[in-house]
Specification:
The complex is a heterodimer of chains A (269) and B (282). Chain A is an all-alpha fold. Chain A has eleven helices and no strands. Helices cover 81% and strands 0% of the residues of chain A. The chains are: A mainly alpha (269), B alpha/beta (282).
C-alpha cells in the first residue's frame, strides 16, 4: 500500500500539476472561457447586444471613460464617501461593541435596541436619511455608516464574549485597570471577530453607497450606473458594475493582508 | 491590607510559631446551582507563615481552587474571612499561576511575562531587567519574541511562572500549574520552580492533586477532605532545602511520607466517589 502511494506521489510530481496549481489554473481559465463564450454568443447573434453588450465593447467603453476622466472622478467620489462612512460607522461600533461585551448592564440596555433596528432594510431608511441630511455628501456618508455600524457592533460584542474568562481573571489578578483591560484584553481578544465584522460591513457599505448615489447625487459609481440607464448606455452600466466588483475584491484582499499584520498570533495560514 | 469579617472564636490552630502571612478564619463558600446549594468550602481555618511553601492536596471538587481564588480576590467568601499581612508599598499582594492555558495569545512571550509590571506602569529599565532575568531563569530568552501558539505546553507554563515571579508579589498562588504536563516535563518544571523559589523564598500556596508533587515541593501539606471542603490534616515535610526532585524521590523517608498521605487521602477519595455515584442519574 505504501508503495502504491509513493508511486502516486511520484506520478504527480513528474509532469502533472499538483492539486493546488491545477485549482489556480482553473480559477483563472474559467472566467476567460466564459467571457470568450459571451463574446462569441453576441457576435453570432445568440445574445441580445442591447442588454448584454459584448465584453470587447464594454472594454472599449471602459478605456473611453478612463480617458475622459469620468470613471476616475466617480470612483474617487464613492471611495471618499466609503472612507468617511467607514470611520463614522465603524469606530463608534467598535468602541460601543467592546464596552457592551465587557459590561453586562450596558449590553442588556443596548441589545434590544440593536435587535429591533438591525432587521430594518437599510435601503428603506434612505428617504428618511435624505430628509434629515439633505441631498449632499452627508446623507451618502451616513448611509454607509449605518451599513457598517451593525456588523461591526454585533461582531465586537460577540468577539469580547468569546474571550476566555481566564484572561479577564489574569487581568484582575495582575492589577489591570478598566482602560487597561479594554486595551490589553478585550480589544485584541475580540479583534479576529471584529475584522470579520468589518468584512461584512464592507459588503454592506458597497451596496448602500451604490443605492444612495442613485438618488440625488451628481457623482459616484452609483450615479454613473443610474445615469447610464437614463441615457441608455448599457456599456457604461457594465463598467460601473465591474468597478464596484473590483473595489470589493481589492478591499477584501487588503483586509486579509491587514488581518495577517494585526493578528500575528493566529496560527500561520 | 485587610479584607475580612471579624472573627470572634479563635479555633484551634494547626501551627503558630512564625508570624502568619495569611490567616484564614472560618471561611465558608457556597454556590447556588440548579441542583441546589453546593458547599465548596466549609469552615476552613488556616495559618500560613511567611516564607512557607505551602501545598494543598485533596480530591477533585474539594474546593482547593475556590480557596485560592478567594485569596486572589477573584471570588468573595460566603462567610468568614481572610487576613493577609499588607505587602510593602509598591508591591502587589499576590500573583497567580493559573491552571491551564492563561497566556494572552496576542502577546509575545516577553509581553506576557512583563504583563504585571506593565500594568503597574513600572519604569522601562526595571521591566527590561526583571523580565530579562526571569526569562533567562526559565530558559525562555530565545523565545522572547515568540507567540504562545508557537510554544509547547511546558514552555507555556514556564512563561506563566515567569510572569508571576516577575511581578514580584508578596505571595505566589499556584493552581495546579503542572497538571496538564507529561511526567518528564513535570519533574523539570518542579526543579526549575524550586530553583527560582530559592532565590526569593516567597510565601507560596501551591495547589495540586498529586501527592508526589505536594511532598516534593512543600514545607507543609494540607490535606483537604472531599466535598464539602474542610481541612483534614496538616503534615510537616521534614526534607532539607535546597531539594533535588529525583534524588528526593528515591529516599525511603520520602516513600513513607507519601504513603502516609495517601492513607489519609484514600478515605476522602472514596467518599468523593461515593458522593458522585449517589448523585449520578439512575
Amino acid at each position: 500500500m505504501n508503495i502504491v502511494r509513493k508511486a502516486r506521489l511520484a506520478g504527480w510530481s513528474r509532469g502533472k500539476l499538483s492539486a493546488g496549481n491545477r485549482d489556480r489554473l482553473i480559477n483563472i481559465a474559467s472566467p476567460i472561457v466564459l467571457l470568450a463564450l459571451w463574446e462569441i454568443a453576441v457576435r453570432v447573434g445568440m445574445l441580445d447586444a442591447r442588454f448584454f453588450p459584448a465584453p470587447s465593447r464594454v472594454f472599449d467603453t471602459f478605456v473611453k471613460l478612463i480617458e475622459s476622466g469620468a470613471l476616475w472622478v466617480n470612483t474617487w467620489a464613492s471611495l471618499q464617501r466609503l472612507f468617511w462612512g467607514f470611520l463614522l460607522g465603524g469606530v463608534p461600533a467598535l468602541l460601543l461593541g467592546i464596552a457592551m461585551g465587557l459590561y453586562r448592564p450596558l449590553r442588556a440596555s443596548v441589545e434590544p435596541l440593536v435587535a429591533a433596528t438591525y432587521p430594518i432594510p437599510k435601503s428603506a431608511i434612505l428617504p428618511l436619511i435624505l430628509l434629515i441630511f439633505g441631498l449632499g455628501e452627508a446623507s451618502k456618508i451616513v448611509m454607509v455608516a449605518i451599513g457598517v455600524f451593525y456588523p461591526v457592533l454585533i461582531n465586537s460584542v460577540a468577539g469580547v464574549l468569546e474571550i476566555n474568562r481566564i484572561f479577564l481573571d489574569v487581568g484582575r489578578n495582575f492589577g489591570a485597570g478598566r482602560w487597561q483591560v479594554f486595551c490589553t484584553i478585550a480589544l485584541p481578544g475580540a479583534l479576529p471577530l471584529v475584522i470579520a465584522g468589518v468584512k461584512l460591513g464592507l459588503g454592506m457599505g458597497l451596496i448602500l453607497i451604490a443605492i444612495a448615489e442613485m438618488i440625488g447625487a451628481k457623482s459616484g459609481l452609483g450615479y454613473m450606473i443610474w445615469n447610464a440607464w437614463e441615457i441608455l448606455s448599457v456599456e457604461t452600466m457594465y463598467v460601473g458594475l465591474i468597478v464596484i466588483a473590483l473595489l470589493g475584491f481589492l478591499f477584501s484582499l487588503a483586509l486579509n493582508e491587514l488581518e495577517r499584520f494585526i493578528i500575528p498570533w493566529k496560527a500561520e495560514r | 491590607m485587610v479584607r475580612s469579617t471579624p472573627v470572634k472564636n479563635e479555633k484551634s490552630m494547626a501551627t503558630i510559631e512564625t508570624p502568619a502571612k495569611i490567616r484564614i478564619r472560618n471561611l465558608t463558600k457556597s454556590f447556588e446551582t440548579r441542583a441546589g446549594r453546593v458547599i465548596a468550602l466549609d469552615d476552613v481555618s488556616l495559618d500560613i507563615p511567611a516564607g512557607c511553601f505551602f501545598t494543598i492536596v485533596g480530591p477533585s471538587g474539594c474546593g482547593k481552587t475556590t480557596l485560592l481564588r478567594i485569596l486572589a480576590n477573584l471570588e468573595t467568601p460566603t462567610s468568614g474571612g481572610v487576613e493577609i499581612t499588607a505587602p510593602a508599598a509598591n508591591r502587589p499582594g499576590n500573583s497567580m499561576v493559573f491552571q491551564g492555558d492563561s497566556l494572552f495569545p496576542w502577546m509575545t512571550v516577553w509581553e506576557n511575562a512583563a504583563y504585571g509590571l506593565t500594568m503597574r506602569k513600572r519604569p522601562r529599565s526595571e521591566v527590561e531587567e526583571v523580565v530579562g532575568h526571569y526569562l533567562a531563569r526559565t530558559g525562555l530568552t530565545r523565545f522572547a519574541k515568540a507567540y504562545p501558539h508557537q510554544l509547547s505546553g511546558g514552555m507555556k507554563q514556564r512563561v506563566s511562572i515567569a510572569r508571576a515571579f516577575a511581578n514580584d508579589p508578596d505571595i505566589l498562588l499556584m493552581d495546579e500549574p503542572f497538571s496538564a504536563l507529561d511526567e518528564q516535563n513535570k519533574v523539570l518544571l518542579q526543579e526549575e520552580l524550586l530553583r527560582i523559589w530559592e532565590e526569593t523564598r516567597k510565601t507560596v500556596l501551591f495547589i495540586t492533586h498529586s501527592v508526589d508533587e505536594a511532598a516534593t515541593l512543600g514545607d507543609r501539606i494540607l490535606i483537604m477532605s472531599a466535598q464539602p471542603g474542610r481541612t483534614k490534616r496538616i503534615v510537616e515535610v521534614p526534607f532539607e532545602r535546597p531539594r533535588r526532585v529525583l534524588e528526593l524521590r528515591v529516599r525511603p523517608e520520602y516513600g513513607e511520607l507519601v504513603y502516609s498521605i495517601w492513607g489519609q487521602l484514600r478515605d476522602e477519595v472514596h467518599r468523593a466517589r461515593a458522593q458522585d455515584e449517589a448523585s449520578a442519574p439512575t
